[in-house]
Amino acid sequence: MSHDEPQAEMARLRARNPVNLAGGLLLVALGGLAFWLARDLDPGTPREMGPGMMPRWLAVGVALCGLALLISAFLVPRAVNEEGEQTLPLRGPFFVVAAILVFAATIRPLSIGDVILPGLGLAASGPLSLLIAGYATPEARLRDLLALSFGLTAFCMALFGDLLNQPIPIMPRALADMFPPGWSEKAILRATTALLAAVAVAAFLMRPRNSSDQDVSASMRDE
Amino acid sequence: MSDFLANLGLGFSVALTLQNLGLAFLGCMVGTLIGVLPGVGPIATIAMLLPVTYGFEPVGALIMLAGIYYGAQYGGSTTAILVNIPGEATSVVTTLDGHQMARQGRAGVALGIAAIASFFAGTVATLLIAALGRPLTNVALVFGPEEYFSLMVMGLVFAVVLARGSILKAIAMVMTGILLSTIGADGETGAQRFTFDYDFLSDGLDFAVLAMGVFGIAEILRNLGLTQSRDVVHKPIGRLLPGREDFGQAVAPVLRGTAIGAALGILPGNGAVLGPFASYTVEKRLAKDPRRFGRGAIEGVAGPEAANNAGAQTSFIPLLTLGIPPNAVMALMVGAMTLHEIIPGPQVMTRNPDLFWGMIASMWIGNLMLVVINLPLVGLWVRLLKVPYRLLFPAIVLFCCIGIYSINRTPTDVMLIGFFGLVGYALIRLDFEPAPLLLGFVLGRLMEEYLRRSLVFSRGDFATFLEHPISAALLAVAAIMLGLALLPSVRRGRKDVFTE
User: Fold this and answer.
1) Of B428, B45, B43, which is closest to residue A93 (Cα–Cα)?
2) Distance (Å, rounded) from C-alpha B401 to C-alpha B399?
3) Residue A45, helix vs strand vs coil
4) Confidence grade of residue A216 (pLDDT, cut at 50, 70, 90)
5) For residue B103, what are the contacts with CB-CB under 8 A and spacing of at least 6?
6) Lowest mean pLDDT among A8-17, A131-140, B261-270
7) Cβ contacts of residue B199 below 8 Å, gap of 6+?
8) Taking CB atoms and an 8 Å limit, are A96 and B418 in contact across chains?
9) Residue A1 pLDDT > 50
10) Is B97 within 8 Å of B298 (Cβ atoms)?
11) C-beta separation of B268 from B320 below 8 A
């Protein structure tokens, strides 16, 4: 009996709901950060609310919720039926966020400090980011993704650029200047769209049809 | 009455133009498409398509966006019945009996009754919006800042009570949402709040950015972590029209479901999500043999489907009459209206009657279209379900990027959806529900404004909210709801409803 007691003591100190412990810590940190960032804003008086009043109250409120959650994490065990995955997959978030960042960084010229990234335009950054995103799952297959990336980019260029007249950069200026001088913006856009669509069709036709065992099993999984 | 008919006549004359019919059809098709596909929700889709509607007339734009919203409710049930995965959050309940019916070879009847129930509920809800529009607008005109503030407090309390899981966490999410809404220049003094001197933050966060990150990208990240098998029913779908006996069993549940859904949908704070759950519970209680539920009872499809669609429609009421969006989709509608320089609220009906009534009429037309689209095209939607997720999600990511870029043409917006995608994913992993956060964000700026005005009028006295009778009543309702939700017995019941 006696040697059980330190263990019981340990169990009492250990969080019974680690998810709520993390959540509580996050809220306390968020509230604290917001309070600190709002330190220079004038809270004013109730009669004349300043810009700092709402942020401060809310920061305190968020932190208090976090505190309550922290305490509850030690008192109330995690319910069994709550969604509980223990592993933290990194592959998905990494590739998806990378795809988004690549799109943001290449769609048009962007200067970060002294570094100036050349804008590639939709014709290049669309397929690029779709390919990267596709690899977020281990089931990714390059040829399917190639066909999809060029096809979908062509579709988006036709939809957003041609039909809806959204000014989305299509390609780098230098490349657009290489078209014959008589060509209008629309003509260049349409030519590029057609080219991308052709590439997509080619990539689609070049797909191996169940050529290897691996592909057969993969396609059976999808059915 | 003649007023009512004249208004509806005006509405139909607007909605029946060729262009608006086309846009309603397009919206319904897109809505059904994304409703059928699990993992693509109406929030992310409408956010993606906001820039697409720039070029349209305001009426056409709103008709299309509304079509996407209720189209998604229809499409979601198709997936629920055939695949046992809710295509939309609101069709969770339909999986229980709908999928069982499909496994018994009665998929067609389930789809048919779902469509008919939804159409009936949509018709009633449309008439209800038309009938309640004017009186509620008159109510809105006597609302002062105190009443508006209290109404929004009540809406947020509802959102908290209706959220899944811990109430404490939901409260934290609401407050975080309001906190996020304070980012940017202060409306009164222009002081920069939380902007870190970045220009792109001084206008505040764009709602579309937050919604697309937290609902679009985070949902993808969550799905990538799950291994989900799609159990598409292989049995023949069977005949689509329910027989006389089926109708007989379904009539009363449809009527009750419509009433429950319509009533809950009007509430600010996304009451519509509760409709299907409430209807299912009621039907199960009233049934002579409750054991049939969960084993393919047609009442378990008819009631919740009616409630679902009625709620989706009537949630337009707070937006159109009071200018307060009750859920995230309606908040995007506010965004769409502001893009076209229409300020949502009671003045819409008087200043833009063609928009108000045209939209209402188009809802009924859209519902009719959905019955026609959904039933014959079921085979097409089933084929669509076979598109593997590994190809679907990269396409969604690219659409999100292009969509958000074309709203403001700033790469920072694109980066922010990545950031909020990660934030949303972290919230999901930590058992926080993002819906209350979004609603807090939507209402935050308005609440601060009305609070400030109320306190100026009352010279800093907070009792003003209790001295105005309507405001006091709204706050009392909010307090009672919160108190009830915290009672141990109700808490258990609430858990049952959401885990059933």
Assistant:
1) B428
2) 5
3) strand
4) very low
5) B233, B235, B296
6) A8-17
7) none
8) yes
9) no
10) yes
11) no
In eight-state DSSP terms, residue B54 is G
Interface test with B, best of A39, A56, A65 (most B CBs within 10 A): A65
Least CA distance to B389: which residue of chain A? A222
Contact A38 B221 (CB under 8 A): no
If you write DSSP's letter for every residue of B56-122 in order, what string do you get? S-HHHHHHHHHHHHHHHHHHHHHHHHHHSS-SSGGGHHHHHHHHHHHHTT-HHHHHHHHHHHHHHHH
Determine whether B30 is exposed, middle or buried from the number of CB atoms within 10 Å of its CB (0-12, 13-18, 19+).
Answer: buried
Residue-level pLDDT at B1: 63
Extract the runs of DSSP E, i.e. beta strands, from chain A.
Answer: 44-45, 48-49, 110-112, 115-117
Provide the residue count of chain B: 500
- Give B303-323 pLDDT, tens digit per residue: 999 998 898 888 888 888 888
With 90 as the cut, is the pLDDT of residue A31 above it?
A: yes
The string of pLDDT tens digits covering residues B159-169 is: 888 777 788 99
**Rounded-to-integer distance, Cα B450 and Cα B434, Å:** 25
Whole-number pLDDT of residue B490? 62
In the three-class reduction of DSSP (H, G, I as helix; E, B as strand; rest coil), residue B271 is classed as: helix
Distance from C-alpha of B66 to C-alpha of B362, rounded to nearest angstrom: 9
Mark which residues 183-212 of B lie under 8 Å from A by CB: 186, 188-189, 191, 193-194
In this prediction, residues B217-237 reach a mean pLDDT of 74
- pLDDT exceeds 80 at position B95: yes
Partner residue opposite A61 with nearest CB, options B175, B400, B405: B175
Cβ of A23 within 8 Å of Cβ of B388? The answer is no
**Taking CB atoms and an 8 Å limit, are A72 and B462 in contact across chains?**
no
Joined tokens for residue B179: 């906190």
Sole residue written with tokens 């969080």: A15
- pLDDT at residue B65 is higher than 80: yes
ipTM: 0.84
Report the SS3 class of residue B228: coil
Contact B397 A51 (CB under 8 A): no
Neighbouring C-beta atoms of residue B430, cutoff 10 Å: 18
Rounded Cα–Cα distance for residues B406 and A165 (Å): 10
3-state secondary structure of B252: helix
Query: B165 to chain A: which residues are within 8 Å by CB?
Result: 82
Quick one: how far is CA B494 from the chain centroid? 20
Q: B136 vs chain A: nearest CA distance in angstroms?
A: 30
Q: Which residues contact B122 (CB under 8 A, 6 or more apart)?
A: B70, B309, B310, B313, B363, B364, B367
pLDDT level of residue B173 (50, 70, 90 thresholds): very high
CA-closest candidate to residue B152, choices B490, B487, B477 = B477
User: What is the per-residue pLDDT for B51?
Assistant: 73
Closest CA to A100 of A120, A124, A129, A123: A129
Q: How many CB atoms within 10 Å of residue B21?
A: 17
Give this prediction's pTM: 0.84
As beta bridge partners, residue B193 has B184
The first and second tokens of residue B246, run together, are 């089926």
